[in-house]
Amino acid sequence: MFTRVQLGGKARSLEGDRVRLRRHEPGNYGLYAGWYGDPEIWHLTSWAAAPLGRSAVKRLFEERELSTTDDSFAIHVEGEEEPVGVISLMNLSEANSSADLSVIVGHPEDRNQGFGAEAIEMILRYAFDDLGLNRVGLSVFDFNDTAISTYERLGFEHEGRLRRAVKRADGFHDALLMSVLSEEWQR
Q: In the record, what terms sit under GO molecular function (predicted)?
């Protein structure tokens, strides 16, 4: 099941079976700062040189809320007020009918529960059906096997590799480029 609550031109929230995507509330920025400042989440997901500090995270989400090229939601488990993660369509391009996907699930106990996968399915449906996009892409680091497996299961295809593009304590790693097209998603 999937329903959307519209407000103006953008969906205010998206509701799935176990997960609901809601617009960000400033009261959650402190929680997000904990996630974006977490060395494990940084290691798995971030292009930044180091985990982000509280003020950088606050600024990031304030800018996302005002941006015309980002469409971002908090991931909530049904019946819970505190979000478990963040999912965004970034770099929205009307000219190219495309966007980039970004997703994190914050607390370790909330990972591997299917919340992120359901959120991705919901935001892809929103991207293709509501926003009329043709392509949603992403980058994922070659050592993040869990994320790669999830993206493949959801229909993302490998389309390239940025060789030795990200540096971690153990050396340089590749970033894999993946995408899913509207017609692939519809099948």
A: acyltransferase activity, transferring groups other than amino-acyl groups
